[in-house]
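C-alpha cells incoming
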C-alpha cells in the first residue's frame, strides 16, 4: 500500500464521520421539533350545565391530563353554535402561564338573544410552548360539549 491509498482511506473515514455527525444532528433537531409540536393536554372528560335560560350562566368542568410543562402562554377562543347553526364568539383572549392542575372550571353567560334549542360550545386553545411558537402555536381543539337553551315561557 502506498501513501496515496492511505490518504484516500483516511479521507473516506473522515467523510463517514461527517455523514454520521450530520445524521445525528438532524435526528436531534427532528426530535426537538416533534416534541415541541406535541399536544400539551388531553381532555379526559367534560361536564356542562344541562339547560339554561337565555342570559344565564353555564358551567363547564373538564378533567385534563398535562403532557408537558414548558408552555408559557395560551390563547383561548370559545364560541357557542346555536340551534340555528349561527356562531356566537364569547371569548378570544390571551392567558399567561397555564394552571397545570387536572381540573379546568370555566363559566360563560349565554347571550340574551340566544335562540332556544341545543347549543354547542366550541373551544380551541393555542399554546406557545417554545420562543418561536408565538408565530406557530400548538392548537388543541377541545371536545365539543352540548347544552340546551330553554324558553323562558316554559318555566
Amino acid at each position: 500500500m502506498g501513501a496515496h491509498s492511505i490518504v484516500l482511506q483516511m479521507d473516506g473515514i473522515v467523510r463517514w464521520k461527517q455523514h454520521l455527525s450530520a445524521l445525528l444532528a438532524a435526528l436531534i433537531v427532528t426530535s426537538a421539533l416533534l416534541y415541541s409540536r406535541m399536544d400539551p393536554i388531553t381532555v379526559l372528560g367534560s361536564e356542562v350545565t344541562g339547560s339554561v335560560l337565555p342570559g344565564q350562566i353555564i358551567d363547564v368542568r373538564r378533567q385534563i391530563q398535562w403532557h408537558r410543562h414548558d408552555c408559557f402562554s395560551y390563547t383561548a377562543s370559545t364560541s357557542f353554535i346555536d340551534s340555528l347553526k349561527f356562531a356566537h364568539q364569547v371569548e378570544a383572549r390571551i392567558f399567561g402561564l397555564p394552571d397545570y392542575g387536572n381540573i379546568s372550571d370555566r363559566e360563560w353567560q349565554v347571550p340574551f338573544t340566544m335562540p332556544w334549542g341545543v347549543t354547542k360550545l366550541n373551544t380551541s386553545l393555542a399554546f406557545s410552548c417554545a420562543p418561536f411558537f408565538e408565530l406557530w402555536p400548538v392548537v388543541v381543539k377541545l371536545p365539543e360539549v352540548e347544552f340546551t337553551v330553554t324558553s323562558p315561557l316554559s318555566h
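note: The chain has two domains: 1-36, 41-154.
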